[in-house]
Amino acid sequence: MDVHNTAADDGDNELISTLLLLPTRVFESLVSYPIRLSIMNSLINGPLTVTDIASRLRLAKGVVHRHLKILEKMGWVTVASDEIVRILNLSREANRVYYMLSSLIYFGYDVNFDGCEIQLKINSKYVAFADSRKGVLIVKTPTATYGCVKSCGNGVECINWALKVSRKFRIQVNVPNININVDDALTQLFHGILVKSFTSPKAKLPLIRIVDLKIDNVYRQWLGNPIRVNSNGSGQH
To answer: pTM of the prediction?
Structure first.
């Protein structure tokens, strides 16, 4: 499920989602395997191939590929499209496949089902966001924080930035004192942006989308396909 950036001041830049909602269980799966965190960190500054990642982490390509496919299935990473490969001027030699982060920010959610009512609960205790300056994915769960180093020297600057952005978007960020954890201040900011994305009349729709090829195939077998492909390869409504 994607929540896209609602701000259009800088034009449409959809090379990567602004914010992505993932089940809380995949956060636990991510932090339970240090190798998966390392793979995510390796992708912080742009798309890479399996060979690239394996070389950087000094791991076997088979091991990297296996964990990458798991991360892709969980929603953490995605395969870079042909358009992204072209825009970034990446090598197309030997039909290379590039992997990249699926989003800048991730929040966890849980689903409760009661009869005909489905409740989607966003859990702000599960959050992750990319810090490309430091080359790390900061991940917060109820039991631990990964990647945010308090001694990095940028704590005050990060909090000031969070407060500045919160004023721009009219989001409440509670900073009782300058000693507040930086990741807590940023989480408040990103959670506020998420709420704005759901409540703003300018939100880019759809805010939530589900893609399931198995369901799609079953649906089309009985109810047909709204998009047909002609023999010449062109689509037709």
So the answer is: 0.82
